[in-house]
Write a structure and sequence with these properties.
The complex is a heterotrimer of chains A (329), B (337) and C (380).
Chain A: H1 2-28, H2 34-45, H3 51-61, H4 67-79, E1 85-86, E2 91-92, H5 93-97, H6 100-128, H7 133-147, H8 150-165, H9 184-193, H10 195-221, H11 224-231, H12 236-242, H13 244-254, H14 256-274, H15 279-288, H16 292-320, H17 322-326
Antiparallel strand pairs in A: 1-2
Helix pairs in contact in A: 1-16, 6-7, 6-10, 6-14, 7-10, 8-10, 8-14, 10-13, 10-14, 14-15, 14-16, 15-16
Chain B: E1 7-18, E2 21-33, E3 38-42, H1 49-57, E4 64-76, E5 84-88, H2 97-102, E6 107-110, H3 114-117, H4 124-135, H5 140-153, H6 159-162, H7 172-184, E7 190-194, H8 202-219, E8 222-227, H9 230-236, E9 239-244, E10 247-253, H10 254-259, H11 264-271, E11 323-326, E12 329-331
Parallel strand pairs in B: 3-8, 3-9, 6-7, 7-8
Antiparallel strand pairs in B: 1-2, 1-4, 4-5, 9-10, 10-12, 11-12
Chain C: H1 16-23, H2 26-36, H3 38-55, H4 57-60, E1 81-84, E2 87-99, E3 106-117, E4 119-129, E5 133-141, H5 164-200, H6 202-217, H7 220-229, H8 237-268, H9 271-279, H10 283-320, H11 331-336, H12 341-346, H13 354-375
Antiparallel strand pairs in C: 1-2, 2-3, 4-5
Classes of the chains: A mainly alpha (329), B alpha/beta (337), C alpha+beta (380).
Chain lengths: 329, 337, 380
C-alpha cells in the first residue's frame, strides 16, 4: 500500500511540473507582453510611452530576457514563496489573490460534498426501486442536470431570483461583510450563501454520480453474495447497505479524483456569472490584460490544488477497497 | 421416525411475470421431508429446483412471486417446551421478523459457487459472525469464538487465522467448508444445499459430502440436497424427489427410485446413465426431444411430448396429480391413475 | 442397443421471428435493440433536425444576421397573429417606437394599424444554398419587394438591432460543426494512442497512461482560457475556429483513449482473439477484423457522448469572450450578450440561445445512452 501511495505521489509531482510548464507556456504564448498592452492602453488614453521607458519597464519586470532564463527565474521565485508582481494591480500577486484561492477551495469542496450527499441516496433508491416513478424522476432530473451547462443554469437562476424575488442571489457574502475581516458572523454569512453556488456547480456531477451509482448497484444486486446475505436472515435494508452498496462504492470513490478538476474548472465560469469573489473572475481579467504573473500563478495554484485533492482521494480509495491493497494496480 | 414431517411443501406455484410472458418456474411442487432425513432433489437445469429452494426461504428474486401453495415448516414452540408447531412459510411476509428469524437460524442455504457467494470485501469471519450475532443472544467475542469453533468443526485448518481472510484467499474446498460453517453456525434443523459440489473437483466433492454426512449425524439435521448428479444422490440421500419443468414427478425412498422407478421420466433418466459394464461403443440412450422453452410449456403433463408411454387425449389435456403407489412413494403420471 | 423410439411430437420449431434473430448481423441486432428505446429514437430525430438546420440555415433565416440598426436595439419578440378577421392569414404587427418620457428609454408598442402579413417561401436576402446554388427564397418573409429585415422579429433583437432568430440559425451552423471536427480529432488521437497503449502494453502503455492521468488531473477550463486568450487578436474567424477546435480536442481525447485501451486490454485475453492468432491471422487482421468490431459500438456510443461536451466547451469559451468573437456567430457568441443580470432582466429573450444548447445536449445524451445500451451485448 505504501508503495502504491508513493507511486501516486511521484506522479503528482510530475503532474505539478507539467502544469508549471503549461502555465508558463500560457504566459509566454500571446505575442507581445504586458508592456506592449500597457503601451497600447496608454496610447488609447492619449499618452505616449517612450522607448526608453518601455525598455526600463521591461527590465524591471524581467521581460526582456530569453525564455529559459525566465523559466528558471520563475521557478526559483516560487520556491522562495514569491509569486511575482501583478502588473495590472501593482501589488504582489499573493496579495491580489488573497483569500480568493481559499474561497475557491471552499466552493469546490462544498460542491463535491453536496454531490455525494445527494447522489448516493438517490442512486441507491433508483437501483433498488428500478423502474418506479421515483427512479424515472431521478433519471430525468439527472439528465437535465447533465445537459444544462452550469453557467447557463446560473444565469437562469440569477434571472429568476432577480425578477421573481427581487433578490440578488450571486456573491458569497452580503455586501456589509464583503471585505470585513474573518469572524463568526462572516463564516455564517458564507455558509448561508454557499448552497446555491454549490448546487449549481455540483448538479452536473450529481447527475453523473447518480447514474454511475445506479448502474454499479444494479450490477451488484444481481450477484450471488446478495442472495447469501438475504438467506442468513438479514433485513433487506441491511442486506443492501452492507454488501452491494459497499461494492458499488468502489468505482464511485475512484471518480472523486476526476470530479475535483471538473468542479474547479466549472467554478471558474459560474463564479463569473454569479460574481463570486473567487479566483475565476480574476483569472479572466488577467488573461485579457496579459498580466502574466497573475494569470500564470492562478493556473499553477489551481492545478496544484487539484492534484493534491486527487492524491487525497486516491489514498482514500486504497483505504476503502482491501482488494487494491493486496494486488498491484 | 418422527411421524410429523419437518417440511411439507404442498402444491407450490412460483411464477415470474416477464415482459414476454409468465414463466411458471415452479408449477405444482409437493414434497415432504422428515427430520434428520436427506432428500435429494434431482432434475435437469431449469426444472425449478433452485427456485423451489428459494421459495421455501422466501428469497425469490423479483418479479417472482409465490402465487399458490403452502410450505409447512415445523418449529420448536417458544418458551422452551418440547412441543412444536407448524407454520406456513408461504403466508409470511418475506421481510417479516418471524420469517427472518427462521431464515439462517432454522433453515439454512448453501450455494453452488462459494467464491461469488461470499462478499469479496468482507472477511469470511465477518460474514459468519454476522449470522451468529443476528440469531443468538451472544456478544462479539463469544460469536467470534463460536465462529472459530465452527470452522474447526468443518475441517478448516488454523481457523483463528483463516477467519480474518477474504474468500479469494481460500481454496475452493476451504471456501465451501467456510460456507457450510456459516450456514450451520446457528444450528438449523434443515439445511438446503443447492448444488454444493458441482463446482468442485471430484476429490473435494467426496470430502465435502462426507463432511455433510458427519455433521448431519452429529446434529440430527435434515438435508435437502439439490443436484443434477444422480451419483451424489445415490450416495447421500434417503429419499429422492425427481423434478421436471417445475413439478415433482416422482418422490420415493432412494432404493425405490433406483431399482423400481415408476415415472417415465425417472426411468428415462436412469436409462441414460452410461453403464460401466456396457460393451464399448454401445450407443447411449438420451431422452428424446429437448426441454421446452419456458414460455412454450406443453398443455397437460409437461413431459408428454417426450414420453415413450404417452397416452393421446389424456396426457396432453390434463395434468396428473401425485398418487401414492408405495410407502413414501408418490408419482404424478396417468399410467398410475 | 435399442435406440429410444421417438414418441410424440417434437417441441415446436423456433418461430420465424426467432430465426431472424439467429441470423441477424451485429448491426441489425443493434438497430433492433436501439429501436425499442423510444426516447433514443426521438433524440436521434431531434439531432437530425438540428443538423438539417445547419444545412439550411440560410433558408430558415429571414434577416441578414449582420444587418444592424441601433434604433432597433433590444426589441422584444413579436407575437404572430394567426387569424385576421376570421381568415387564416398569419401576420405581425408593425412596431411603433416612442421614448418613455420618464425613463427616456425606448419603448416599443405593437401598432395594430400596421398589419404585416407573413408569407411562406418568400423572397429575401440572397445566399448560396450549400455554398453552390444561388437562391433567395426563405422559409418566412414578407410581401415581395420588402425585405424581411427590419420588419419581423420573431425572437426579438439584440443590443445592436440584429434579428435574433436569424442569428440563431446561423449560430447553429458553427456551434454544431465545431463539435464534429473536435470529436473527429479526439477520436483519431484516442484510437491511435489508446489502441497502441492497450494492444501492445508494456512501456508504451505506461507512458501513455501516465500522460493521460496527468492531463486528466488538470482543470481544463483555466487551460482553455489561457490557450484561447493566447490566440492572436488579428486572426481571422476561420483561424480562430480551427484553433479553438484543436485546443478543445487536445484535452478531450483522453476519455476516448481510456475507453479504447480498456476494450483492447479486455479483448486481448479473450479466447477468440487467441484462436484468431493461432489460426494464422496477422496482427493487423486480428485487430481490424476480429477485435475492432467488438468495440465499434462502444466507440460510436462514446463519440456521441463526447459531442455535447465539445459543444458546451465552445459555448462556454465564446460566452466568456475568449472563443469565437463577433462577427462570427455561434450560440456562445449570442449568449455573450446575456452576461449580466441587468441586461437579462430587461431583455430576457437574450437568453433564448440557451434553449438549443440544452435541447441538443440532452438529445445527444439520450442518443448516446441509447446507442450504448444497444451496443452492450450483455444488456437486457
Amino acid at each position: 500500500m505504501l508503495a502504491d501511495i508513493g507511486r501516486r505521489a511521484l506522479l503528482a509531482v510530475f503532474t505539478v511540473w507539467a502544469i508549471y510548464m503549461l502555465a508558463f507556456a500560457i504566459i509566454q504564448l500571446p505575442p507581445g507582453d504586458y508592456v506592449s498592452s500597457y503601451i497600447a492602453q496608454m496610447a488609447s488614453m492619449g499618452s505616449v510611452v517612450t522607448d526608453e521607458e518601455a525598455q526600463n519597464l521591461r527590465i524591471q519586470y524581467g521581460l526582456g530576457q530569453p525564455i529559459y532564463v525566465q523559466y528558471w527565474k520563475w521557478m526559483k521565485q516560487i520556491a522562495e514563496g514569491n509569486f511575482g508582481f501583478s502588473m495590472e494591480w501593482r501589488r504582489p500577486v499573493t496579495e491580489v489573490i488573497g483569500e480568493r484561492l481559499w474561497l475557491t477551495v471552499v466552493v469546490a469542496v462544498s460542491a463535491l460534498l453536496l454531490t455525494w450527499v445527494l447522489a448516493l441516496p438517490i442512486g441507491i433508491y433508483s437501483a433498488v426501486r428500478q423502474y418506479s416513478i421515483g427512479d424515472y424522476a431521478a433519471t430525468f432530473v439527472g439528465f437535465l442536470g447533465l445537459a444544462v451547462p452550469n453557467f447557463l443554469l446560473a444565469l437562469v437562476l440569477l434571472y429568476l431570483g432577480f425578477t421573481l424575488f427581487n433578490a440578488h442571489i450571486g456573491g458569497l457574502f452580503s455586501p456589509e461583510l464583503q471585505d470585513a475581516p474573518w469572524s463568526l458572523a462572516r463564516v455564517w454569512d458564507l455558509l448561508k450563501h454557499l448552497p446555491i453556488p454549490a448546487l449549481i456547480l455540483g448538479l452536473a456531477g450529481t447527475a453523473q454520480q447518480i447514474r454511475i451509482m445506479r448502474a454499479n448497484l444494479l450490477d451488484e444486486l444481481r450477484k450471488p453474495y446478495v442472495v447469501t446475505a438475504r438467506s442468513k436472515g438479514l433485513t433487506e435494508a441491511r442486506v443492501i447497505l452492507k454488501y452491494p452498496v459497499r461494492l458499488a462504492l468502489n468505482p464511485f470513490a475512484s471518480t472523486i479524483g476526476y470530479t475535483l478538476p471538473y468542479i474547479v474548472s466549472g467554478s471558474i465560469i459560474v463564479s463569473l456569472v454569479l460574481g463570486l469573489p473567487t479566483v475565476g473572475p480574476l483569472l479572466l481579467k488577467a488573461l485579457i490584460s496579459q498580466d502574466m504573473f497573475l494569470a500564470g500563478t492562478i493556473v499553477l495554484l489551481l492545478g496544484i490544488m487539484t492534484v493534491i485533492g486527487t492524491l487525497i482521494s486516491d489514498i482514500v480509495l486504497v483505504w476503502i477497497d482491501p482488494r487494491i491493497r493486496l494486488e498491484d494496480t | 421416525m418422527d411421524a410429523e414431517p419437518l417440511l411439507s411443501v404442498r402444491n407450490l406455484h412460483t411464477y415470474f411475470a416477464q415482459d414476454e410472458g409468465i414463466v411458471k418456474a415452479v408449477d405444482g411442487v409437493s414434497l415432504e421431508m422428515n427430520a434428520g432425513a436427506t432428500l435429494g432433489v434431482v432434475g435437469e437445469s431449469g426444472c425449478g429446483k433452485s427456485v423451489t429452494a428459494r421459495s421455501i426461504l422466501r428469497i425469490v428474486d423479483r418479479p417472482g412471486r409465490i402465487v399458490e401453495g403452502e410450505i409447512w415448516f415445523r418449529r420448536p414452540t417458544a418458551n422452551g417446551g418440547t412441543g412444536s408447531h407448524a407454520v406456513d412459510l408461504a403466508k409470511l411476509e418475506p421481510n417479516s421478523e418471524q420469517m427472518r428469524s427462521i431464515r439462517g437460524a432454522e433453515i439454512a442455504l448453501i450455494f453452488q459457487e462459494p467464491m461469488s457467494s461470499f462478499s469479496p470485501v468482507h472477511s469470511v469471519g465477518n460474514q459468519i459472525i454476522e449470522a451468529i450475532l443476528l440469531h443468538e443472544a451472544i456478544d462479539r467475542r463469544g460469536a467470534r469464538a463460536k465462529a472459530i469453533e465452527m470452522l474447526r468443526r468443518v475441517g478448516v485448518s488454523s481457523p483463528d487465522q483463516r477467519i480474518d481472510q477474504l474468500a479469494n484467499q481460500l481454496s475452493g474446498g476451504l471456501r465451501q467448508r467456510a460456507m457450510i460453517a456459516m450456514a450451520l453456525s446457528c444450528g438449523p434443523t434443515l439445511l438446503i444445499a443447492d448444488e454444493p459440489t458441482t463446482a468442485l473437483d471430484v476429490t473435494t466433492q467426496t470430502q465435502i459430502l462426507e463432511l455433510m454426512r458427519q455433521l448431519q449425524q452429529e446434529d440430527g439435521m435434515a438435508i435437502m440436497l439439490i443436484t443434477h448428479d444422480l451419483g451424489v444422490v445415490a450416495e447421500m440421500a434417503t429419499d429422492v424427489a425427481v423434478m421436471y419443468l417445475g413439478r415433482v414427478v416422482e418422490q420415493a425412498p432412494v432404493d425405490a427410485i433406483f431399482h423400481a422407478p415408476k415415472h417415465p421420466y425417472t426411468r428415462a433418466l436412469l436409462r441414460s446413465i452410461p453403464r460401466m459394464r456396457a460393451r464399448s461403443r454401445e450407443r447411449l440412450t438420451p431422452i428424446a426431444g429437448a426441454v421446452p422453452h419456458p414460455y412454450d410449456r406443453p398443455a397437460g403433463c409437461p413431459f408428454h411430448p417426450r414420453c415413450p408411454d404417452f397416452i393421446a387425449g389424456t396426457c396432453d389435456r390434463q395434468t396428473p396429480g401425485p398418487r401414492t403407489v408405495g410407502e413414501r412413494h408418490t408419482v404424478s403420471c396417468f399410467l398410475y391413475e | 442397443m435399442a435406440v429410444a423410439a421417438d414418441a410424440g411430437p417434437l417441441p415446436s420449431a423456433p418461430t420465424a421471428d426467432k430465426q431472424r434473430i439467429f441470423v441477424a448481423s451485429q448491426w441489425q441486432l443493434m438497430w433492433w435493440r436501439f429501436r425499442k428505446h423510444r426516447v433514443a429514437v426521438a433524440s436521434a430525430i431531434v439531432v437530425g433536425g438540428f443538423y438539417l438546420a445547419v444545412l439550411g440555415a440560410d433558408f430558415l433565416a429571414y434577416s441578414d444576421p449582420n444587418a444592424s440598426e441601433a434604433q432597433r436595439g433590444l426589441m422584444p419578440p413579436q407575437a404572430i397573429h394567426w387569424f385576421d378577421d376570421g381568415r387564416f392569414r398569419p401576420h405581425v404587427y408593425g412596431l411603433k417606437g416612442a421614448r418613455d418620457p420618464k425613463t427616456f428609454k425606448r419603448v416599443y408598442q405593437a401598432d395594430p394599424g400596421q398589419k404585416i402579413p407573413i408569407r411562406f417561401f418568400a423572397q429575401g436576402f440572397e445566399y448560396r444554398f450549400l455554398g453552390l446554388i444561388p437562391m433567395s427564397r426563405h422559409l418566412i418573409g414578407v410581401d415581395p419587394g420588402r425585405d424581411a429585415s427590419g420588419t419581423i422579429f420573431l425572437l426579438g433583437t439584440d443590443v445592436q438591432g440584429r434579428d435574433l432568430w436569424s442569428r440563431l440559425m446561423f449560430g447553429t451552423r458553427i456551434s454544431l460543426t465545431i463539435g464534429l471536427l473536435g470529436v473527429t480529432m479526439s477520436l483519431v488521437l484516442g484510437v491511435v494512442l489508446g489502441g497502441f497503449s492497450g494492444f501492445y502494453g508494456g512501456v508504451a502503455d505506461t507512458v501513455i497512461q501516465r500522460i493521460i492521468e496527468i492531463l486528466r488531473s488538470i482543470p481544463t477550463i483555466p487551460l482553455w482560457m489561457g490557450l484561447a486568450a493566447a490566440l492572436p487578436r488579428d486572426w481571422t474567424i476561420l483561424q480562430v475556429y480551427f484553433a479553438i477546435t484543436v485546443i478543445i480536442s487536445l484535452l478531450g481525447w483522453t476519455e476516448l483513449a481510456r475507453v479504447i485501451r480498456g476494450r483492447f486490454l479486455a479483448l486481448r485475453e479473450e479466447d477468440f482473439v487467441v484462436s484468431a492468432r493461432l489460426v494464422g491471422c496477422t496482427q493487423m487482421r486480428t485487430i481490424f477484423v476480429h477485435m475492432v468490431p467488438s468495440f465499434m459500438s462502444h466507440i460510436i456510443a462514446a463519440t456521441t457522448l463526447a459531442l455535447p461536451a465539445m459543444i458546451i466547451s465552445e459555448t462556454a469559451l465564446s460566452f466568456l469572450g475568449l472563443g469565437l468573437r463577433p462577427p462570427a456567430i455561434s450560440w456562445g457568441v449570442l449568449l455573450q450578450q446575456a452576461q449580466n443580470v441587468q441586461t437579462v432582466a430587461i431583455s430576457p429573450w437574450l437568453m433564448l440561445p440557451a434553449v438549443p444548447v440544452i435541447v441538443v445536449v440532452m438529445a445527444f445524451n439520450f442518443l448516446g445512452d441509447g446507442l450504448r445500451d444497444a451496443a452492450d451485448p450483455y444488456g437486457r
